[in-house]
Design goal:
The chain has helices at residues 27-38, 50-58, 74-88, 112-140, 152-155, 161-180, 206-214, 224-234; strands at residues 18-22, 42-47, 65-68, 93-96, 143-148, 186-193, 245-249. It is α/β, with parallel strands linked by helices. The longest helix is centred in the middle third of the chain and has 29 residues, at 112-140.
Length: 256
């Protein structure tokens, strides 16, 4: 992975900021955690996989630490937020990155379990963390929330109906919440990547990956740190007049 974290100066400086990044033990989440920490933030690496989160946080500066949480469980999320507040005293940044792709299958082949699991992790997980963190941000009149959606949420990928539907829901949630707190110093935005070279691709068939990659004008998958660059800006104080928006990082695939 190309290191885009080197040479980060005062622009988009996050020194003194406390950040939560979910699903940050691997993949895009880990790249985001690396990027935010390099800019000065103290990052809570939140993941269901606690050993993975501990390993990822150990490599980060500024007192990064690991927190275990099941994003689909509101009580677990509440405990995680409390643990972060106890450690840092504040939460300036929330990046909702945790998600799954689920099996590639036509809708008539999708099981109730596949559908419900996608909703629980990809959509309810974002709702749970936003609801838990936003009262604290409102009290301080400051916050940055970045939700990782997907280009599938805008264009729909065949044989990925549950995933596409939940990511569309994340975009809608982002736009609604951004408007709810628009006058309170809190900016809420989403990032919609096209296919990214991470472990989540292991859940898909080569044909499914080829379908997505062939529709990218740049003719390649994204690197996790390329998504982290966009998240970095949206997590910064310089992102002050951008809210309720969805930023595409799709190599040109998005058409609107």
């Amino acid at each position: 992975m190309t290191d885009r974290s080197s040479g980060i100066g005062k622009m988009f400086d996050l020194t003194g900021r406390a950040a939560i990044v979910t699903g940050a033990a691997t993949g895009i989440g880990q790249a985001i955690a690396i990027r935010l920490a390099a800019a000065g933030a103290t990052v809570a690496v939140v993941d269901l996989n606690l050993p993975g989160a501990q390993q990822a946080s150990a490599a980060l500066p500024n007192g990064a630490f690991a927190v275990q949480a099941d994003v689909a469980d509101a009580a677990s999320v509440g405990r995680a937020v409390d643990a972060v507040l106890q450690q840092t005293g504040k939460i300036d940044i929330l990046v909702n990155n945790a998600g799954i792709a689920g099996p590639a299958a036509y809708i008539w082949e999708q099981t109730d379990e596949n559908w419900q699991r996608n909703i629980a992790i990809n959509l309810t997980g974002v709702f749970n963390f936003c609801r838990a963190v936003i009262p604290h941000m409102r009290e301080r009149s400051y916050g940055r929330i970045v939700n990782v959606a997907s280009i599938a949420g805008k264009e729909g990928n065949p044989r990925m109906t549950p995933y596409s539907a939940t990511k569309a829901g994340v975009i809608g949630l982002t736009k609604a919440l951004g408007k709810e707190v628009a006058t309170e110093g809190i900016c809420v935005n989403a990032v919609s990547p096209a296919v990214v070279q991470t472990q989540i691709l292991d859940q898909l068939t080569p044909e499914q990956v080829a379908y997505m990659t062939d529709r990218i004008p740049m003719r390649r998958t994204a690197k996790p740190d390329e998504i982290a660059c966009v998240v970095h800006f949206l997590s910064s104080s310089e992102c002050s007049f951008v809210t309720a928006q969805c930023y595409d990082a799709s190599g040109g695939r998005a058409t609107y």
